[in-house]
UniProtKB/TrEMBL annotation:
<dbReference type="InterPro" id="IPR028098">
    <property type="entry name" value="Glyco_trans_4-like_N"/>
</dbReference>
<keyword id="KW-0808">Transferase</keyword>
<dbReference type="InterPro" id="IPR001296">
    <property type="entry name" value="Glyco_trans_1"/>
</dbReference>
<protein>
    <submittedName>
        <fullName>Glycosyltransferase</fullName>
    </submittedName>
</protein>
<feature type="domain" description="Glycosyl transferase family 1">
    <location>
        <begin position="182"/>
        <end position="295"/>
    </location>
</feature>
<dbReference type="Pfam" id="PF13439">
    <property type="entry name" value="Glyco_transf_4"/>
</dbReference>
<feature type="domain" description="Glycosyltransferase subfamily 4-like N-terminal">
    <location>
        <begin position="18"/>
        <end position="171"/>
    </location>
</feature>
<dbReference type="GO" id="GO:0016757">
    <property type="term" value="F:glycosyltransferase activity"/>
</dbReference>
<dbReference type="Pfam" id="PF00534">
    <property type="entry name" value="Glycos_transf_1"/>
</dbReference>
Length: 353
């Protein structure tokens, strides 16, 4: 495979976090490991630990006190900071030509799933930038078939311009070794042997379906504990707030199931992460990762109290399904970071000219 000397990568936040933030760090690290230089262009940067050799982080300064407006202005100016001789990957909705756009979700799809029919000013501006990104990209990678279909149908992009490439998982970090600390972590968290621990990784409880999960938990008393890993606490009975954690593999290994009941979730990386750590993932049927996962690691439910309670009952009543001993049977796509970046470089080469 022919490698470029370097790559520009544009994303508004290059720092530790969940979802796309973690994905960006992983991709940059793998590119650097291969000796490909990276210019990361962002509004905010904070690399966890030592910055890899060959990686340069460029901060585009904010121009107003308002974060949403600053994101919009960043998208208009970010490409001015690129190394012009290198191909460019656009993950933020940048205005102008990029060789590859990587899309984790669309704004129109998000609004439709929320049931929002009246768009505000920023909704319209966001969609306008999305349309520009898709129109100007050499090629587009969508993180799920659902997102691919949103791009082609809601934004009228030719199908041949968009391909599906599910996001990778760091198997060095997320693996069955996480279960070795299961008893210790449960004891530290105060989880009894007779309690069912649902792990809920969430930085947006409303979007991730907290109300539905809490409603389904009613009547269980303290037999079910919802352990919330995220920035903001969730104030409700039966909830154990863990805050932001750096030990997610150990938390996955300690849980009896991981849950997402999102209103909109383009993929949902917590699904394969949890399965790789030996713990089944309970995912609402509209979540993108459902396309790429299978039973016994995956338990699917419709976004209703009845369906979610049935899924909870299934897991609680079948102790053999709690420990996933062969994750590869449940994750049916090439989830290694190396394979993913191989595919990205081919797409970059396809779009670069």
């Amino acid at each position: 495979m022919i490698q470029p000397e370097g790559i520009n990568l544009v994303f508004h936040s290059i720092r530790a976090g969940g979802g796309m933030e973690r994905y960006v760090l992983d991709v940059i690290e793998e590119l650097a490991r291969r000796g490909i230089r990276v210019r990361g262009i962002a509004r905010k940067t904070r690399w966890p630990g030592m910055l890899p050799a060959g990686v340069e982080l460029v901060v585009v300064p904010d121009r107003t006190p308002f974060s949403r407006l600053n994101n919009y202005l960043f998208e208009q100016k970010a490409l001015d900071y690129c190394q012009p001789a290198w191909p460019t990957i656009g993950i933020s909705r940048v205005v102008g030509r990029v060789d590859l756009a990587i899309v984790g979700g669309t704004h129109i799809g998000h609004l439709k799933d929320k049931g929002k029919t009246r768009w505000g000013v920023f909704d319209r501006l966001t969609v306008a930038h999305e349309r520009g990104l898709y129109a100007n990209a050499g090629h587009i990678v969508a993180h799920s078939a659902r997102v691919r279909d949103e791009i082609t149908s809601l934004y009228t992009v030719p199908a041949g311009k968009v391909s599906t490439l599910y996001p990778p998982v760091d198997t060095i970090k997320f693996n069955l070794g996480a279960r070795a600390s299961r008893e210790r972590v449960r004891k530290e968290l105060g989880i009894r042997d007779d309690q069912f621990m649902l792990l809920f990784p969430s930085n947006n409880h409303k979007l991730k379906g907290a109300d539905l999960i809490l409603a389904a938990m009613e009547g269980y008393g303290d037999r079910v504990v919802l352990a919330v890993a995220g920035k903001a606490p969730l104030d409700a009975p039966g909830v154990l707030n863990l805050g932001m954690r750096q030990d997610m593999p150990e938390l996955y290994g300690a849980a009896d199931a991981t849950i997402l009941a999102s209103k909109y979730e383009a993929f949902g990386l917590v699904g394969p992460e949890s399965i790789l750590c030996g713990t089944p993932a309970m995912l609402a049927s509209n979540i993108g990762a459902v396309e790429a996962l299978r039973s016994p690691g995956l338990v699917v439910f419709e976004r209703s109290i009845v369906s979610l309670r049935a899924a909870m009952k299934l897991l609680q009543g079948n102790s053999s399904s709690v420990a996933i001993t062969k994750p590869s049977d449940s994750i049916v796509y090439p989830y290694s970071l190396e394979a993913h970046v191989d595919a990205l470089l081919l797409k970059v080469a396809h779009g670069f000219h």
